[in-house]
Write a structure and sequence with these properties.
It is a single chain. The chain is α/β, with parallel strands linked by helices and 637 residues long. The chain has 19 helices and 30 strands. The strands form nine sheets. Strands 5-4-17-16-18-19-20 form a seven-stranded mixed beta sheet, with helices on both faces. It is globular and about 75 Å long. The structure holds 5'-O-[(S)-butoxy(hydroxy)phosphoryl]adenosine. 5'-O-[(S)-butoxy(hydroxy)phosphoryl]adenosine (WT7) binds next to helix 10, strand 20, strand 24 and strand 25.
Length: 637
């Protein structure tokens, strides 16, 4: 197994070693996997391309490492524990042997339906075991999976299917989430009706058994396709740098981009980071509450834990159903040892009162994790005291879809954990802060833009179908550095505190939403001339979405207009991108070159207009006063 750091001295030693001789460091980590052919060189890189390759010439299949490799030693150990939406439903479990068999059967079914190495398969599914199984089945035969979060709209799904030119969509009939019963297949049908010419098959998993529309030329049932399939399937041997998956994520401009991860480096890094960040021990039960539709679910529900031979929990439902004690009920029932969730969930549960968490026995918990957005001190302390009873280290893990794995994080019982600090980089990760001109900011007690100055195995390789976009977004801002889009502080002890995005990306409940995307959606409304979207502090969601809209004709019924705008956004992107505030404005503050001054709009949305700065250079300074008058929040002058 990969290195597992046990004390701070060892951390310092390994960190120093990883910087001094990265090749040797990563060579040592990679040795613990099963390679069909060893690599010839550990890394070759050039951030100008970018052109980054890890474990060059190495051949492997990641599922052999997730499954086959464990069969001898822990074949009968539970690999996957699945907890259904209904609290009185039955927990399902798959041993490593059973999961291996299911993955092989599914892989054989995919092959029989014409899926092979390099083909893209889109998943649009709720959190059912078949999602994890399907993803691994793709990896088994070298097909490239791209999971689309099942909360996205038909339009958003179609966009991703077409960008990936996917050959197959795998979905479910319906999705039970809390009290809701969501028609998943219907969304896929709608996406198909919009035009997805590359799709040959829609493979539908029967989840609730409710009736769905059926197109016999394209639609096939999962259970029928799996019937009688062999429980073994020879893994397709992949090159280290062959594509493993695409995951779409939002940026500051344009449509979501497909972040590409490759086989070898992703395997090494997710296992390595999982073992260190959660200090997993052989009989532990580990639970990450994320959805597999996001990178957290890929790396820390599926790949990382399975590579490490862990028992990983997957939950179908939501934290507040049947009540706000559901997470803790599951921790108690399954005797969870490591628990990993998002600050937004902690804040939402905290708001419901302590009685829900006090009802359950949480004595098995050893490590608590958070991810996705900055955690505020109040939520951190509640998590620490009420959930961890003051005896579980909190790991505030900073990373991104593009980094593939956790980058800056405490190591439990190794690193000090000052509240709201992501603290220190894992060995192998070289973060730095730069100023606007790209000069590295040395020393401590400083603030700047967060960059990474040396490659790491699970880093983004390209954006699917558009390499230049990858270069422009991540590698062109500062020479020879990967730019994260985040601002950060480094305190006097050299520990990092993530401040948040410095670009036009909003982080709503840990979900990344591009302001341009929301604006484009709003602009689809017939009565909208122009719009500008900014984030503002929100008690539960971290950030909320504030939309300023110029309309064509006067809006007489504001409430009806608001509803229509929400509908358009839901149709174009999905409910997660719905603005929390909509203000109709006579104009938007613009520079003389026509650029919207978002800084001013952000200030107004925050309610703090004390430091608006000089607006006299604007093309239309008068509009600022008008926007202030109509603001939906109380303004502090
Ligand atoms: C953005 C990446 C990585 C999994 C979930 C989100 C923010 C992430 C933290 C943290 C403060 C964080 C950053 C980052 N973020 N973790 N611990 N503290 N901010 O993945 O959708 O790719 O979003 O989430 O702003 O850039 P993602």
């Amino acid at each position: 197994m990969t290195l597992q750091i046990k004390n701070f001295k060892q951390y310092q030693k390994e960190y120093a070693r990883s910087v001094k001789n990265p090749e040797q460091f990563w060579h040592d980590q990679a040795l613990s996997f099963y390679w069909r052919k060893p690599w010839k060189k550990v890394v070759e890189w050039d951030f100008k391309g970018p052109d980054v390759k890890w474990f060059i010439g190495g051949k492997l299949n990641i599922t052999e490492n997730c499954l086959d490799r464990h069969l001898a030693e822990r074949g009968d150990k539970v690999a996957l524990l699945w907890e259904p939406n209904e609290a009185d439903g039955k927990t399902k479990s798959y041993t490593y042997r059973q999961l291996h068999a299911e993955v092989c059967k599914t892989a054989n079914a995919l092959k029989a339906n014409g899926i092979g190495k390099g083909d893209r398969v889109i998943f649009y599914m709720p959190m059912v075991p078949e999602l994890a199984i399907g993803v691994l089945a793709c990896a088994r035969i070298g097909a490239v999976h791209s999971v689309v979060f099942a909360g996205f709209s038909a339009q958003a799904l179609a966009d991703r299917v077409n960008d990936a030119t996917a050959k197959m969509i795998i979905c479910s009939d319906f999705n039970k989430r809390g009290k809701k019963n969501i028609p998943v297949k219907k969304v896929v049908d709608d996406a198909m009706a919009m035009g997805c010419p590359s799709v040959e098959t829609v493979l539908c998993h029967q989840n609730t058994g409710q009736e769905v529309d059926w197109n016999p030329e394209i639609d096939k049932w999962w259970h029928e396709e799996l019937k009688g399939r062999r429980t073994s399937c020879k893994p397709t041997i992949m090159d280290s740098e062959d594509m493993l998956f695409i995951l779409y994520t939002s940026g500051s401009t344009g449509k979501p981009k497909g972040v590409v991860h490759t086989c070898g480096g992703y395997m090494v890094y997710t296992c390595y980071s999982f073992r260190n960040v959660f200090q997993y021990q052989e009989d532990d039960i580990y639970w990450c509450t994320a959805d597999i539709g996001w990178i957290t679910g890929h790396s820390y529900i599926v790949y990382g834990p399975l590579l490490a031979g862990a028992t990983t929990v997957m939950f179908e439902g939501v934290p507040t159903y049947p009540d706000a004690g559901r997470f803790w009920e599951i921790c108690d029932k399954l005797k969870v040892n490591q628990f990993y969730t998002a600050p937004t969930a902690i804040r939402a549960l905290m708001a419901r009162g302590d009685e829900y968490v006090e009802k359950y026995d949480l004595s098995t918990l050893k490590v608590l994790g958070t991810v996705g957005e900055p955690i505020n001190a109040e939520a951190w302390h509640w998590y620490d005291e009420k959930v961890g009873k003051g005896r579980c280290p909190i790991v505030d893990t900073w990373w991104q879809t593009e980094t593939g794995g956790i980058m800056i994080t405490p190591i439990p019982n190794v690193t000090e954990t000052p509240p709201t600090f992501a603290t220190l980089p894992l060995p192998g990760i070289q973060p730095c802060l730069v100023d606007k001109d790209g000069n590295e900011i040395a020393g401590n007690d400083v603030e700047g833009l967060l960059c990474i100055k040396f490659p790491w195995p699970s880093m983004i390789r390209t954006t699917y179908g558009d390499h230049e976009r990858c270069r422009n977004v991540y590698f062109s801002a500062f020479e020879n550095k990967y730019f994260t889009g985040d601002g950060a502080r480094r305190n006097k002890d050299g520990m990092y505190r993530i401040i948040g995005r410095v670009d036009d990306v909003i982080n709503v409940s840990g979900h990344r939403i591009g302001t341009a995307e929301v604006e484009n959606a709003i602009n689809e409304h017939d009565n909208v001339v122009e719009s500008a979207v900014v984030g503002y502090p929100h008690d539960i969601k971290g950030q909320g979405i504030y939309a300023y809209i110029i309309t064509n004709e006067n809006v007489t019924d504001e409430e009806a207009f608001r509803k229509e705008v929400l509908q358009v956004v839901t149709r174009e992107i999905g409910p997660i991108a719905k603005p929390d505030m909509i203000q109709v404005v006579p104009g938007l503050p613009k520079t003389r070159s026509g650029k919207i001054m978002r800084r001013i709009l952000r200030k107004i949305a925050e309610g703090d207009v004390s430091k608006l700065g000089d607006v006299s250079t604007l093309l239309n300074p008068e509009v600022v006063e008008q926007i202030k008058i109509g603001a939906l929040v109380e303004l502090k002058e």
